């Protein structure tokens, strides 16, 4: 009987066409939304641990089922403002920052990068661009580069 594998058992070379196809269909906006939800869940989890509470204790203080708290911490829940305000108050953590809102200025720049990137999927390119400089790409055009002799 084979033993179930843990995520740690897979190395960086693990590849799945199905998973790659799913990631390729995620827009940068959807990825940003998911990232925010995951960070929010992590912030709530951190506040819960700093307070020394379990999910059951938070559930009891908010008159919720433990399964609801578990969903909140999964990073997939779409919170109401009222719920976020209650979590802030109970866990003494700032989740909303509406006091000092400053509109971000957007500068449209067309940047052409000539490099061998054919092995990147669109999703990988978006992630690479965002991680490299905190930028986001609204579109990516893959144009073959023809080498010329001078």
Descriptive overview:
- The protein is mostly helical and 150 residues long.
- 48% of the residues lie in helices and 0% in strands.
- It is built from six helices and no strands.
- α3 crosses α4.
- The mean pLDDT is 79.
Strand count, sense and barrel status of the largest sheet are: none
Helix content: 40-55%
State the CATH superfamily name of the largest domain. lambda repressor-like DNA-binding domains
Structural class: mainly alpha
Low-confidence region ranges:
none
The shape is flat
Number of beta-strand segments? 0
In CATH, the architecture of the largest domain is Orthogonal Bundle
The separation of the N and C termini measures 63 Å
Number of helix segments? 6
C-alpha Rg, in Å?
21 Å
> What is the total domain count?
2
Mean pLDDT: 79
Report strand %. Answer: under 5%
Q: What features would you highlight for this structure?
A:
150 residues; mainly alpha; 434 Repressor (Amino-terminal Domain); 2 domains; 48% helix; 0% strand
Summarize the structure.
48% of the residues lie in helices and 0% in strands.
Topology, pairings included?
Elements: H1 17-24, H2 28-51, H3 55-62, H4 66-74, H5 81-91, H6 122-133
Helix pairs in contact: 3-4
């Amino acid at each position: 009987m084979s033993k179930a594998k843990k995520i740690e058992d897979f190395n960086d070379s693990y590849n799945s066409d199905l998973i790659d196809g799913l990631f390729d269909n995620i827009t940068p906006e959807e990825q940003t939304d998911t990232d925010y939800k995951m960070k929010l869940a992590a912030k709530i989890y951190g506040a819960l641990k700093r307070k020394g509470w379990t999910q059951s204790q938070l559930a009891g203080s908010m008159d919720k089922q433990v399964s609801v708290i578990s969903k909140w911490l999964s990073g997939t829940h779409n919170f109401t403002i009222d719920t976020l305000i209650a979590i802030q108050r109970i866990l003494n953590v700032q989740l909303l920052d509406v006091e000092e809102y400053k509109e971000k200025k957007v500068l449209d720049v067309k940047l052409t990068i000539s490099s061998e990137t054919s092995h990147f999927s669109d999703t990988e390119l978006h992630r690479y661009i965002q991680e490299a400089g905190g930028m986001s790409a609204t579109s990516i055009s893959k144009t073959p580069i023809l080498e010329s002799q001078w």
